[in-house]
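[#protein-structures] MJ: dropping Arf-GAP with coiled-coil, ANK repeat and PH domain-containing protein here for a structure pass
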Amino acid sequence: RAALEEVEGDVAELELKLDKLVKLCIAMIDTGKAFCVANKQFMNGIRDLAQYSSNDAVVETSLTKFSDSLQEMINFHTILFDQTQRSIKAQLQNFVKEDLRKFKDAKKQFEKVSEEKENALVKNAQVQRNKQHEVEEATNILTATRKCFRHIALDYVLQINVLQSKRRSEILKSMLSFMYAHLAFFHQGYDLFSELGPYMKDLGAQLDRLVVDAAKEKREMEQKHSTIQQKDFSSDDSKLEYNVDAANGIVMEGYLFKRASNAFKTWNRRWFSIQNNQLVYQKKFKDNPTVVVEDLRLCTVKHCEDIERRFCFEVVSPTKSCMLQADSEKLRQAWIKAVQTSIATAYREKGDESEKLDKKSSPSTGSLDSGNESKEKLLKGESALQRVQCIPGNASCCDCGLADPRWASINLGITLCIECSGIHRSLGVHFSKVRSLTLDTWEPELLKLMCELGNDVINRVYEANVEKMGIKKPQPGQRQEKEAYIRAKYVERKFVDKYSISLSPPEQQKKFVSKSSEEKRLMIAVNSDEARRESLFCPDELDSLFSYFDTSSKLRSIRSNDSGIQQSSDDGRESLPSTVSANSLYEPEGERQDSSMFLDSKHLNPGLQLYRASYEKNLPKMAEALAHGADVNWANSEENKATPLIQAVLGGSLVTCEFLLQNGANVNQRDVQGRGPLHHATVLGHTGQVCLFLKRGANQHATDEEGKDPLSIAVEAANADIVTLLRLARMNEEMRESEGLYGQPGDETYQDIFRDFSQMASNNPEKLNRFQQDSQKF
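AK: finished. structure tokens for Arf-GAP with coiled-coil, ANK repeat and PH domain-containing protein:
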């Protein structure tokens, strides 16, 4: 019975395992069928795409062939799942339901007869010896029960042995069938794709050629695009043509303003055309044309100079007149001439059909000559790749010399090939910040920074001793050599000339020459009352939110006094007089001390060189100082602990500030007066720098030692642009905090306005000129 109990427990566990396996098989089959359905839908999508590409034989043929192959694979999958259902689900389920059920029935009979035997034994033991009749009856019952028990026990043991033997064969048989189904599936797939392999290989070779051709065509198109952008065009009507004998019957077409015949005399822009001796117009291209003049032979055309709108002309017919307005004088003349020519042609066509045939054989095409009217020229825009590669040395990779680099390190100001760019990324952003010249969006100040430096400038610093040390630059394709060279060049700075920071002239070794307080002051003559009225957000703040679009604002009428403020419009710098000391705007003369402690007998302290070069707007010298280990946040203890970034603000160069920020400068580091770069830019009225610092995360809530934040300084200075930027940034910050959008850039209006300011600061700084108050009053 102990052995039986052990077997019964084993069979019970076997039943659980088999039930679980059958359920998992059912789930797998259902999932597989769902996969086949989704795969079939995907394949149908490929067929639809093939039908759509019927005009491209290569695409249509390839997609059709691939969809047929995928359909075959779907069929193979279906067969696999059917065989799985028969081998696993059906066989094992049958084993559980039939054989295990017989075992359970035999067990029940065994247990029942066992109980009857126990009862017979009990009755036989209870019979008294003096009752002979009962003794015989109990003995006979016990004998019969024992005989029955032995037969049932023997049957039960037989059923156990049969189950044990069949269990092994049934499980292995079902699993072997399942594995054979997989073997057939993968053989079928292998055979299918073996046949498809040569075609796929040919298609891959064809794709390689297509990629090469596409790259070649792209370069040609970029060259054409660049050539076209470099040309000067007059207005878009310079190539206007009309053809009285056009094949489609349209002599001339284009947009005109039409005055309505209603009481309001409104003007609407409509698409007009002269065709089939009629003048018609459409509100939309899909609309049916509305005929203005049924027959041009019955109408006349004339100039209209007696109304306020310019470039107007009138088409008069016997029943009505139509007042029209062109976009320019040249367009007006063209339309008048086209109508007159069409009228004459209509008369000739009605008079003599043969003349019309002769006319078709030699059509007369009139082209407008360029007039004397002044036109706005098209903007000469260039892509980031074109602009950066024009810089000396940038046409090849800075580190390996591979031609046509498409990547750049924005904090170093160099161009890189794709392999070198990957190595630069591995150095970390504190050494090199990599960006694509073709895939990424470039901010204007960042693009100008790349154009200020370049491979030649940086290599003169970082490769100064390469030839002396006898080291050869790695060639394209040498990955390990490149990685070692780049790490030695930028991380270890092994090739930098340690004594390349030359002495400045004696007069520059000393502190900047101090000026009297009158010479330090900068005065701008403006009407302060009117300026303040235009700078504040009253009564409607939204009106002045976009005040920078108003180029006629009185705040833009700025003139400098005799101190000679310099405004550089070619590079976006708002510079102070070169004779004024960087910090003389804020320090009393008595506080200025000698800085000779930062000089030694050989060269300047790198931090001091970076400090001075930032004010002088000398990016190559700044890059050289950083290469020599200058701390980008070095503070000059002799000049109020001003940083290079503050010096860049005082120097007035937007690009210099961007260079320092890209190299890790702290935009919120303040001097001893509690003023950070944003404070100084606000005081000096450098709108472009204020915009840049706000984009880079400057804290506009910080106050100086007088308790003034940048906004209060801008409001007191009545600088409308800076007030706009600061209030807009603050409003955007509050909105993001209230909505829980931490780390988000802000809404589209905020981004668009800051993008416009950045474009103006980098490309049209004269639009951001603002008067500069005497800083000492702050």
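MJ: nice. The radius of gyration is 45 Å.
AK: one more thing. Confidence is low (pLDDT under 50) at residues 353-381, 501-602, 770-778.
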